[in-house]
Specification:
Belongs to the complex I NDUFS4 subunit family. By secondary structure, the chain is α+β, with helices and mostly antiparallel strands. It contains five helices and six strands. Helices cover 35% and strands 17% of the residues.
């Protein structure tokens, strides 16, 4: 008696999972085209026309393992930098100046390119770029 009850509960659970999978696999209601993601997200127009560099960072001199090798990053070219006369720090008015180093990392070059295209950014890909901030396009 108890085993048939467990069997019925198992069947009910499977049916619930299958019906939820079908529901989640329905076609999307809204189709998002490339270059539209940036416009929908509220990013100002001047930042939608930015140029980015897609690169694979070089291994550091102290790095022995292969843990961080093969990752790809997107870095924005910074246009406005100046030295702060009070502190001597380098300042910028660019909100995306440090985004690439901190947050935009990808497993493959194709994933990084797809992300840039999705946001409508022009990009240049390079696998042997050691310091992307040194490049001025």
């Amino acid at each position: 008696m108890a085993s048939s009850r467990v069997l019925n509960l198992t069947r009910a659970h499977r049916l619930a999972l299958l019906s939820s999978r079908r529901w989640l696999s329905s076609p999307p209601l809204v189709e998002v085209n490339p270059r539209e993601v940036g416009m929908i997200s509220g990013i100002p127009e001047q930042h939608l026309r930015r140029r980015v560099i897609i690169y694979s960072p070089a291994r550091t001199a102290t790095q022995q393992g292969s843990g961080k090798v093969g990752r790809w990053k997107i870095n924005f070219l910074s246009t406005q930098k100046w030295e702060n006369p009070l502190m001597g720090w380098t300042s910028t008015g660019d909100p995306y100046a440090n985004v690439g180093e901190a947050g935009l990392g990808f497993e493959s070059e194709e994933a990084a390119k797809a992300f840039a295209e999705k946001h409508g950014w022009e990009y240049e890909a390079s696998s042997s770029l050691a310091c992307p901030s040194a490049v001025h396009l």
